[in-house]
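Z., the sequence and structure:
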Amino acid sequence: MSHAHEITQGTLLGGRVAYRQLRTGHRSGFEPVLLAALVPARLGQSVLEVGCGAGAALLCLGARVAGLEACGVEWHDALVELANENFRANGHNNFTALRGDATALPFAPDQFHHVMANPPWFDTGSTPSSDASRTLAHHIAPGGLAAWVAELLRVLRTRGTISLILPANRFAEACAALKGPCGGIALLPLWPRADQPAKMVLIRARKGSREPDMILPGLVLHDDHGITATACAVLRDGAGLAGAA
């Protein structure tokens, strides 16, 4: 890699996954680990992540499920290169990242068993970050979430799953975009603490399904002792969530 950007060395899942990312710009937190934990992938299936960054979610998913074929799409050239390095460093020869637009993916329809995304959170009227790459990673035009969902569903196979992680105040918008093409829309709240409202939610749906929608048991992230044992099982031990064991 041509190191025009400064890189930091780290790990995911309690050291099970080697992970390098850019020192500045958008940096991975809990979100990609939790997103990967929701995907019910199985040996030999194909997975697409849009907005993959340096590959954290796909790396976590690959640590839990062997034998996947995975692709990440990312707009930032340096992150695409770094994601591919991370995939190789962790032995995922069937994983690749490429540069692309989330709303115009370079894939045929009905191609992937599972798709996932951590879409930009804020509309373009929100206060931008002083870091241009963080602004692009976090801000989306009005109607942009629906465009992301529509394009992800286009390349998703019938009966395949779409998984999203979003701020709680965007869940209705996401569900509206999913309703119709998908069924079995499942909402999983992520509570900072047991007595606080959820700030983030996970959403999973199945294309072409007529299953009923549901609210899943949520996940409390912190208690008085730090990260909860249930959250540790996902964030450090790589456990799956809500039937994605």
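Residues 50 and 73 are 5 Å apart (CA to CA). Residues 124-139 have pLDDT under 50 and may be disordered.

Let me know what you think.
H.
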